[in-house]
Write a structure and sequence with these properties.
The protein is an alpha/beta fold. 46% of the residues lie in helices and 8% in strands. The protein has an eight-stranded parallel β-sheet with strand order 8-7-16-15-14-13-12-9, covered by helices on one side. A four-stranded mixed β-sheet has the order 1-3-2-6, covered by helices on one side. A two-stranded antiparallel sheet has the order 4-5. It is globular. Bound molecules: 2-acetamido-2-deoxy-beta-D-glucopyranose (12 copies). One of its GO terms (molecular function) is hydrolase activity.
Length: 706
């Protein structure tokens, strides 16, 4: 008990200190260590155990001693105030892929002449999808995490998911329950597939086993992440025990209530149908208590939020209302027994993805098993396109968060819904069942950073943000701190009203380019759903934006030394080439059909010509992408290899795992190309050969006749 009390005390003191903010300044703004002062107001939010629902606030002013003084009612408020200063006065920021540009701030920082106030409009700003930990950060180093956490803190995120290293203590729980190491290892999935193992979608690994060295090193990484999150005013959401257990469990506990879960995405039963310990079984509560207590001992009592998803793309064994109700009631009781202050956080994805099963009646039965509304927090995962909060009357009273999903599998197309994430997010606040937070739940953090920034900015503005002025400021900061040419503003303004303004929600997430799909004479273009390829804008408008973007460097050649300009030049050009590939493909297929029907030699000549053009585009694209590490396959593979131990078999397994995720996705190509990428090396080394084989059969071989 004394140990616990001490941990609590340490946690509280850490949460009170503004040291985390000073450390951030020291890390990212060398030479400016003495330029800022941070102070908490009276009545501040004190972190993970403050149950009050308060909006965060900040004020920025110039103190008498000349420092830029930032005060606020929480560490997250202070961090957001610092961000507001850095973007609005110094024109610098931290960006995904590009890194921190804060060190570019002027030597003599401008001083605000008046006091600037800010207040969030929601108490919580949430970040991450469970699967982001596999699609994006699977092989991140501590340095990668440091950058991400600074990015998050500055943008006011105060409620992040924290999945890293979850296996370490879960393995200990399984060991204490009497499972052997072999039995446990055969349950765990590879480093690039842990998210779906955590969800109970899959079990086991193909191509190699998850090594214990990885389990330990990820746990060490998690400890650093959690300290940093806490220092920066974030309340981590930690994993709870879900009920998914190794296959051998029923052999050890023959009387336990254990069932086989449903099959996922066509995986073989060995890899799916994950064994599930029913929450009404007393062993469930026992394992929950073990798992939670181990985490509190390891990390301190730093949170009351626990993530727990039992049916994410898994069907419950029964749709019976009493069964569903008892599942949640018992899960909730077990959680509260382990942590009396616990809040159960769940992704609401299932209510959309398995809508046929999850009728309103069943959702109500399921959610109402949690007797106290405030003990649950539902993430309305896809609010910008497929909101479920209206049909569930605001999750029947459970607090919920308005989230932007936007991205499947780390797909890379340019895409956004600027109207929706401003207008609709604010409209939800005026509904009868307003959310208590706004959040980001992308499957992968692959680009389109502006739409994530925009929703997080909206969390600090009570009326829908004017996107015209937002994009203008954003562009200045993106390529700042020097003044940016008008052409850049023009380029982004074109994108704002076209590429980033999809309002046709038939296709409602980041599209992938057809060049990343298995070649076919049919079925590639205009796909909707989970492998979307639909372009929601006229390709010409993107070309117009691209021309302005490049023209900006005619007047300002120094832009080519700016990493943000380089990054976006590759990204926008990538999309221009991908769209051109689609146009060539469409022409080629038309020519093919003409040729097939009439044997026309003109049509055949067109087909041959389009084929050559398509391959040229792919080679050009590959060369373009290879100019930057963040668009290169080699970076992903090198990170995977580097995160393995010294053992060469382990290194090879990690590389295989990394390759498998972005190509075959499964031992037998179960969801092939779902997480495809336009990356240098992958385009040239994988997609090009696929298209060549396709053309060899169809054009040279005059095949494809059906
Ligand atoms: C400067 O003034 C601010 C605001 O009063 C205070 O918080 C900070 O500690 C002072 N810094 C120094 C170096 O005196
Ligand atoms: C937060 O601010 C919004 C917008 O001003 C307001 O509607 C809401 O009631 C506030 N929430 C709390 C908990 O104070
Ligand atoms: C399982 O239940 C049976 C019948 O009630 C009982 O005889 C047996 O001892 C139980 N086994 C265990 C391991 O609890
Ligand atoms: C679950 O699946 C395993 C492996 O396919 C099988 O051996 C076992 O009998 C199944 N258990 C139940 C309860 O259906
Ligand atoms: C796996 O789940 C599917 C239902 O999704 C079921 O049809 C099948 O029998 C299950 N297999 C095992 C081994 O439990
Ligand atoms: C952590 O501390 C809070 C606040 O004192 C308390 O309510 C909660 O039960 C503690 N959690 C655990 C798991 O001990
Ligand atoms: C579910 O369980 C809760 C708590 O025991 C109860 O209040 C509620 O009426 C039940 N709802 C349904 C639909 O069974
Ligand atoms: C946002 O999406 C919702 C759900 O699909 C839709 O009803 C609404 O019209 C959209 N709003 C805007 C402004 O695009
Ligand atoms: C987005 O498109 C909608 C529908 O065409 C239009 O009403 C709205 O003004 C557009 N918004 C922007 C920012 O272009
Ligand atoms: C919306 O998009 C779908 C899918 O691309 C398309 O079939 C439909 O025609 C579009 N609707 C409008 C009104 O443009
Ligand atoms: C091409 O697509 C069709 C229709 O979706 C499908 O039946 C066929 O198997 C695909 N061919 C190849 C080679 O993938
Ligand atoms: C090509 O033509 C043949 C008949 O000449 C026809 O059977 C086949 O369906 C056609 N293929 C396609 C893809 O249209």
């Amino acid at each position: 008990m004394i140990f616990r009390a001490l941990l609590l005390w340490v946690g509280t003191v850490a949460a009170l200190s503004t040291k985390g903010l000073y450390d951030l300044v020291e890390r990212r703004l060398p030479g400016h260590e003495n330029d800022f002062s941070f102070a908490l107001d009276d009545g501040y939010r004190f972190g993970g155990h403050d149950t009050r629902l308060l909006n965060d606030t900040y004020s920025i002013s110039t103190a008498q001693n000349g420092t830029i003084a930032i005060t606020g009612n929480s560490l997250s408020g202070l961090a957001t105030g610092l961000h507001r200063y850095l973007t609005d006065f110094a024109y610098v920021d931290i960006h995904w892929f590009i890194g921190s540009r804060l060190e570019q701030a002027a030597r003599n920082l401008p001083h605000p002449k008046t006091t600037i106030h800010g207040s969030s409009v929601v108490p919580w700003r949430y970040h991450f999808n469970t699967v982001t930990f596999s699609y994006t950060s699977a092989f991140w180093t501590w340095e990668d995490w440091e950058l991400e956490l600074d990015w998050m803190a500055l943008r006011g995120i105060n409620l992040p998911l924290a999945w890293v290293g979850a296996e370490k203590l879960l393995v200990e729980v399984f060991q204490e329950m009497g499972l052997s190491d072999t039995e446990i290892t055969s349950f765990l999935s590879g480093p690039a597939f842990q998210a779906w193992n955590r969800f109970g979608n899959i079990q086991g690994s193909w191509g190699g086993e998850l090594p214990s060295s990885w389990i330990s090193s990820q746990f060490e990484l998690q400890k650093k992440i959690l300290v940093r999150m806490t220092d920066l005013g974030m309340v981590p959401i930690l994993p709870a025990f879900t009920g998914f257990v190794p296959r051998a469990f029923p052999a050890i506990y023959p009387n336990a209530s254990v069932i086989n879960g449903s099959a996922w995405e066509g995986f073989d039963a060995d890899y799916t149908n994950v064994t599930f310990l029913e929450p009404f079984d007393p062993l469930f509560a026992k394992m929950q208590e073990l798992y939670i207590h181990k985490q509190v001992e390891a990390y301190g009592n730093i949170t009351r939020f626990w993530t727990l998803d039992q049916y994410d793309e898994n069907d419950p064994q029964s749709g019976d209302l009493a069964y569903l109700n008892s599942t949640t009631l018992n899960t909730w009781k077990a959680l509260k027994a382990a942590d009396p202050s616990a809040v159960w956080v769940m992704q609401g994805w299932l209510f959309f993805s398995n809508k046929d099963f999850w009728t309103e009646e069943r959702i109500e039965a399921y959610l109402s098993g949690v007797e106290k509304d405030e003990d649950m927090l539902v993430l309305d995962l896809f609010s910008e396109s497929q909101p479920q909060w209206q049909r569930t009357k605001g999750y029947y009273g459970k607090p919920w968060i308005w989230c932007q999903l936007h991205n499947y599998g780390g797909n890379m197309g340019l895409y956004g819904q600027v109207e929706n994430i401003t207008v609709d997010a604010i409209a939800s606040l005026h509904s009868e069942t307003p959310p208590i937070g706004f959040g980001l739940t992308p499957e992968g953090q692959e680009g389109n950073e502006i739409v994530y920034d925009l929703l997080l900015a909206q969390a600090w503005d009570s009326t829908p943000i004017s996107t015209a002025s937002y994009f203008k400021t954003w562009t200045q900061v993106r390529y700042g701190p020097k003044a940016v040419p008008q052409d850049l503003h023009t380029a982004w303004d074109i994108l704002r009203t076209t590429v980033y303004n999809n309002t046709n929600l038939t296709s409602n997430a980041v599209p992938k380019s057809i060049l990343e799909l298995s070649p076919n004479i049919t079925g590639l273009a205009n796909r909707v759903g989970h492998h979307p390829t639909t372009l929601n804008y006229a390709p010409d408008t993107l070309v117009a934006a691209w021309k302005h973007y490049l023209a900006a460097s005619h007047a300002f050649p120094a832009l080519w030394e700016n990493p943000a300009y380089q990054h976006d030049a590759v990204d926008i050009t990538r999309q221009v080439l991908a769209n051109h590939f689609l146009a060539l493909y469409t022409d080629a297929i038309t020519a093919y059909h003409t040729f097939n029907a009439s044997n026309s030699s003109t049509a055949y000549a067109t087909l041959v010509e389009k084929k050559a053009d398509m391959l040229t585009v792919l080679h050009t694209l590959d060369a373009l992408l290879s100019t930057l590490p963040q668009f290169s396959l080699s970076s992903w593979l090198a990170a995977a290899q580097a995160s393995a131990g010294n053992d060469s078999a382990e290194v090879a397994f990690f590389e295989y795992n990394a390759r498998n995720q972005i190509t075959w996705w499964g031992p037998g190509g179960e969801i092939a190309d779902y997480a495809s990428k336009s990356w240098g090396g992958l385009v040239g080394g994988y997609y090009v050969p696929r298209w060549e084989v396709f053309f060899e059969r169809g054009v040279e071989g005059r095949g494809w006749k059906g």
